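Folds abound. A case:
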Amino acid sequence: MRRTLIRLLGPLLIALVASGCAQTPQRPGEIYDPWEPANRGVYEFNDTLDDYVVGPVARGYSAVTPAFFRRGVDNFFSNLAYPGVALNDFLQGKVRQGFQDILRFGVNSTLGIAGVFDAASTMGLPANNEDFGQTLGAWGAEPGAYLVLPAFGSSNARDVTSYPVSWYTNVTTYVGDPVTVTALYVVNYINKRALLDKAVRIREEAALDPYAFTRSAYMQYRRNLVYDGNPPMEYDSDDFFEQMQQDSGGG
């Protein structure tokens, strides 16, 4: 089912990238959200889905599974997705890191018992986080318009391209029939939601506008990933000169 969805969404993703990346914010650092009313509607849908379905299921799952089990499940699915990380290493020109990530995948798939245990980190092979959205960012593509996707949540016109790439580079996609594959993805989704339950609660309780908070946090997080934790400083040249005039006592 998910494979069919990805294929159907392919042309839509291309259209979104083309239209969303065609324009950029008016001021540096400004989040481009031209579809905010529609995005807020999808956000509310996701929030309702989480309140009445996903959240309760995840909390019930947490109640019957110990923390080490949930972490092991997360390790297992992260390892199955790791070939995509290595591929994007090479696409970004990170050749050394690419070979290290191939080795990490091999170590965790064997010594780590199919990735349940993170044996590679103890051997000096830390986990990396690379996807096709980051690759496009490394090539110079702007994030484009902010998007909220049903069930998946925050994205943007550039990062939404990661979904089909991640699908075809994830070992989970090839482990069995469509029903089994779908079931595995659902388990992964619920497990991740269970691990994030505390963060979700904090966001809902602390943010005056959870939508704006989530949008800002996501865009900053993705920008940080694209620049490997060292993003360039953003400033508006007009604001800079206005501040200089004020500091010097000018108009």
